[in-house]
């Protein structure tokens, strides 16, 4: 039986329930199945990983033959509860999930080829398929789905009972490229991206663990102004070393209102007072960009990162995960400061 994350997965639709049952019956315990993992701000239905073959993303649809009105590679017209809707096609959804996951995975050296003809490329294939649980292969042909989605990327109701389901997935994966068996480090890295182990939800436990783990990386100050003066000084030093300002970003934890304005506005004001050009919420040439910490996922082209106002009292699970991944997979040019470690 497959290894499932979370172990007690609760599919939201009948289609997902059917697919989960088929995966449990049809795949060996070499497969790791992630139900609705978070990839940036998206949640694919299922992500399957095999150390022998790679990753396949499944987009599950409960559409019936009477539901589908019009098809194209990108947009489908669907009738739902007597309402006509135009929705992103299953193919585009699955493809977008794959691109998001590839982008995330490429940030890890453990998942990248370090030598040879494919140096810098992922060590494993990432493919996708669309599973129509209420349609037969005959339905797929009559409706014209196989004209907008390549047949090899389609599964149907017939596949729910398919005894050779594993072989079908393997065929899809090896059509991309074949791999040698991957080690446990790869699985650990993929789990860190798709199903990170979240710390207990109590603030006290989280504060204690994070302080023990990261106190050596966080520079603390008695107040916010001192914190920002330090950062502005560091940025001026970087600029004198010919580091372009638009290669530097500041991310603030929370944008609460201070006496003289919001945190973002106060950061901007202090930087300007020290001769550092900056822009709020967008990137501008020769300016330091000031953004919310929620935008940290878009930092791949930035050389220097300042995370300010790091506060355990406002540390959500999502922020916690982002910090973990930054520490684990990002370059060392990261400064984390705080004037509130309560």
Describe the model.
The two termini are 45 Å apart. The protein is elongated, with a radius of gyration of 24 Å. The protein is built from ten helices and 17 strands. With 342 residues, it is of the alpha/beta class. The strands form four sheets. A six-stranded mixed beta sheet has the order 1-2-3-4-8-9. The longest helix has 17 residues, at 224-240.
Which descriptors would you attach to this protein?
342 residues, alpha/beta, 6-stranded mixed sheet, 6-stranded parallel sheet, 17 strands, elongated
Q: Note the main sheet.
A: 6 strands, mixed
Question: What is the beta-strand fraction?
Answer: 15-25%
Distance between the termini: 45 Å
Arithmetic mean of pLDDT: 83
Count all strands and give the number.
17
Question: Biggest sheet: strands side by side, in what order?
Answer: 1-2-3-4-8-9
| Stretches with pLDDT under 50, minimum 5 residues | 198-211
Category from helices, strands and their pairing: alpha/beta
| Overall outline | elongated
H-E order: EHEEEEEEHEHHEHHHEHEEEHEEEHE
Helix content: 25-40%
What value does the Rg take, in angstroms? 24 Å
Number of helices: 10
Secondary-structure map with pairings?
Layout: E1 3-5, H1 14-26, E2 32-35, E3 46-50, E4 54-61, E5 68-70, E6 75-80, E7 83-88, H2 90-105, E8 126-132, H3 137-143, H4 145-148, E9 154-156, H5 165-174, H6 184-194, H7 203-214, E10 218-220, H8 224-240, E11 248-252, E12 257-258, E13 261-262, H9 263-273, E14 278-280, E15 288-292, E16 304-308, H10 317-329, E17 334-338
Parallel strand pairs: 1-2, 4-8, 8-9, 10-17, 11-15, 11-16, 14-15, 16-17
Antiparallel strand pairs: 2-3, 3-4, 5-6, 6-7, 12-13
